[in-house]
Design brief:
It contains 21 helices and no strands. The chain is mostly helical and 439 residues long. The longest helix has 32 residues, at 250-281. The chain starts with a helix and ends in a 12-residue tail after the last helix.
Length: 439
């Protein structure tokens, strides 16, 4: 039986299915409502861009190896990812049982609280081991939020699309994600340019997280006006159970894992980790690396609707194969071609963004076209987030670890091999672009 506390949460304004606005709404209004509320992506990625500063302040210094604090920071980054499957499952169940808007409201409040906690994390010098403990707790809450966010927003976007437009609307998933990353990268680059190293180490790295916590309140207010796309069953007995998607659709769950594996590794490598990877393996400065990453993310965001529109015309599978085979062949030469120059990093990152668009622009549509509406959010949320945790969340750690053991060249090979695995799945994937969305 559900606890009284859970009942109170679900009965808050905006959480009751009966309080939802009518299902009919302008699709482009739906996209606007979702994108305006996606400040959680800003909070999530700010951690990656500021990892080197967090490492210096929150973890103990190592006299033997300067990479140890950074490895610890990326380990905490990965820990946050392992809460994403839990968030995908729990918030996906809320989205299927109570409506998409209810889940989106919960996730943005969770992200605001966790971002505030990161911004207020004490230093190791002041409280010792309690500092990394607080940081781990904050990242666990962030992981819970982001895992639930993807499950609810994916279904929300694709269900809002008209006939022949699911690919286009799917692309806004990563437009909004990129906007969050772009804001995080831009704020980080601006702070690095304006503040001294001492100021950044002392307090500057905290500012982006405190700003993110404030913006989450704005996102919460905006999402109160979003129109519901899924009318949840009024009777508790008709609502899906927590594990119904896994129990009744095991093949589809495994399919989501195969579709996502190569894409999530390539995505987090190229959009989040590449500036740090370049710092570790070339002599490029932090400020130039962050600037290149910011410019490349803007380019990436512009590409997403193009990929989505193209998939509505030619199908999903050609774009997925373009991504998978492209990265399988080019990951090693692209990463090996990095030098210490800004231009080199920018060109490598933009080249990868073009290939990556074949996956990111349509992944929401491909995932949503696998499951019926009754279990769509939870069905997508758990296997997708689990795969992201295993391969995407560990990308920075794996890249840094290969550098630590003296074999940085193995990381590009690792990316290429996983993209080969996903390409095999894409070859066997049925074409769904012109099929009706499962009911």
């Amino acid at each position: 039986m559900r606890s009284r506390r859970v009942r109170r949460i679900l009965d808050l304004p905006g959480f009751s299915p009966g309080a939802a606005p009518p299902l009919q709404a302008s699709p482009f209004r739906q996209v606007s409502d979702l994108r305006a509320g996606r400040v959680n992506q800003y909070d999530w990625y700010a951690y990656t861009f500021l990892a080197t500063y967090i490492a210096d302040q929150v973890f103990p210094k190592s006299s033997g190896n300067s990479l140890v604090p950074l490895l610890s920071t990326f380990a905490v980054f990965a820990v946050g990812f392992f809460m994403r499957p839990v968030g995908g499952l729990l918030m996906g169940a809320v989205a299927d049982r109570r409506g998409r808007r209810a889940a989106l409201t919960v996730t943005i409040l969770l992200m605001g609280g966790s971002s505030l906690l990161v911004g207020l994390t004490p230093t190791y010098a002041s409280v010792g081991v309690l500092a990394p403990v607080v940081l781990v707790l904050a990242r666990l809450l962030q992981g819970l939020s982001v895992g639930g966010e993807f499950a609810a927003s994916t279904t929300f976007l694709v269900e809002s699309a008209g006939p022949g437009r699911r690919g286009l609307f799917s692309s806004f998933q990563y437009v909004s994600t990129s906007a969050g990353q772009l804001a995080a990268s831009g704020v980080a680059a601006l702070l690095v340019a304006l503040l001294s190293d001492g100021q950044m180490d002392g307090w500057g790295w905290r500012l982006p997280f405190l700003v993110g916590a404030s913006l989450s309140l704005v996102g919460f207010w905006i999402r109160q006006g979003a129109h519901e796309t899924h009318r949840a069953p009024a009777d508790d007995g008709d609502r899906p159970g927590l594990f119904d998607a896994l129990r009744h659709h095991p093949r589809q769950s495994l399919l989501i894992c195969g579709i996502t594996a190569g894409g999530t590794l390539a995505y987090y490598t190229w959009t989040s980790y590449l500036p740090t990877y370049a710092e570790l393996n070339t002599d490029i400065s932090k400020s130039q690396a962050l600037l290149a990453g910011t410019v490349a993310l803007a380019f990436f965001a512009v590409l997403q609707p193009v990929g989505g529109l193209l998939s509505d015309r030619i199908g999903r599978r050609p774009l997925l194969l373009f991504f998978g085979i492209g990265f399988a062949v080019l990951s090693v030469p692209l990463l090996k071609s990095l030098t210490g120059s800004f231009t080199s990093l920018l060109l490598v990152q933009c080249a990868g963004m073009v290939l990556l668009t074949g996956f990111t622009s349509i992944s929401a549509a491909v995932n949503a076209e696998v499951f019926p509406a009754r279990v769509r959010a939870a069905g997508i949320g758990f296997p997708y987030s689990l795969t992201v945790a295993l391969f995407g969340g560990t990308a920075p750690y794996m890249g840094t670890m290969f550098k630590e053991i003296g074999s940085p060249g193995l990381f590009p090979v690792y990316v290429a091999v996983l993209c080969v695995v996903s390409s095999v799945v894409y070859l066997r994937l049925p074409e769904t672009a012109r099929q009706p969305l499962p009911r």
